[in-house]
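Please, why this fold?
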Amino acid sequence: MTGIFASDKRGSLIAVGAILIGLLLFSLLTTGDLNLLGTEGFGAYLGTINGGDFSITLLSGLLRGMLLFLVAAGLSIVFGLMDVLNFAQGGYFMIGAYIAYEVHHAPAIIAAVPDGNLRFLLGAMLAVAVGAALGAALERGLLRPLYARPLFQLVITFGVSILLLEATKLLWGVSPRSWSTVFGLNEGAFQLFGQQFSVYRLFVIAVGFGLIVAVALLLQRTRIGIIIRAGVQDSQMVEALGINVRAVFTAVFTLGCAVAALGGAVAAPFLGASLGLSTEFLLGAVAAVVLGGLGSYEGTAVASLLVGITQAVIAKFGVQYLNQPVWESLSPMILLALVLLLRPSGLFGKE
């Protein structure tokens, strides 16, 4: 089975570097920073350098990548430990967004908690709690009896994703919800290359990087992390040592669902809450997990950023030059196909 921290890193890092360089050049070509698509010669291109467009694309890509990681991290660790691909993960992201929206905008809660920052914090905490509770219920009530039946697990998690979608329709309807009030970090702004950015977006990127480091430290430096990594390699041996592997399964699955719900909560102030979030982020997260290498945590982190930056670059190129925004949705799968042609095990997966 593929380890959470897989080997053969040198080739993987070379591949990642090549992809990043390619994305950088492609972004420069298509955002107007180096207008090489024109016909006036290279000397004229230097006068068209526009750091603003490039900074917008890069920041949007990092933001998207961090949100994808919050969904993909749970997918990767759960698959590495339990061989379960949780198709309901995108549903937890969607539920987190709706809960954060509701807590921040409900008139009764506004009257009781006038401070917008506190309402956002309460909404995020409630989203995490609900995500954890739903995840624990799914693992203990439905998945635990089916660990020896992978196909049944896929069907169950897919069914739960549909159930979450229908429950959301029942509670909030089908109309998207837009975040209508500003608060705290969402009010602040800074300038980069003449472009204005919300401080809140930097906050989300920082949260994503913080979670990458925190989970890596958890896996590498703590007893539970050692148990998880050992369980990935040989769960039967870990159980023979007297460790309750089932309890570890429940804890890891619950944590993965809670982190996905947190991702939805922190995304809600700029993405709003809509039914499409479930499928949109699930597809991107699955692409990141497979691209990074099934079961490889570090691969998932790197691949999430690659997918996010790719989507940002393709979104700008698709709208600006092809007038086809659909390429943004297709880009994770296109990137995945290209990488798997060269490296079938993914960037950080074992051959």
In short: Strands lie at 189-192, 195-198. Residues 1-17, 23-49 have pLDDT under 50 and may be disordered. The chain has one domain: 9-342. The domain at 9-342 is CATH 1.10.3470 (ABC transporter involved in vitamin B12 uptake, BtuC).
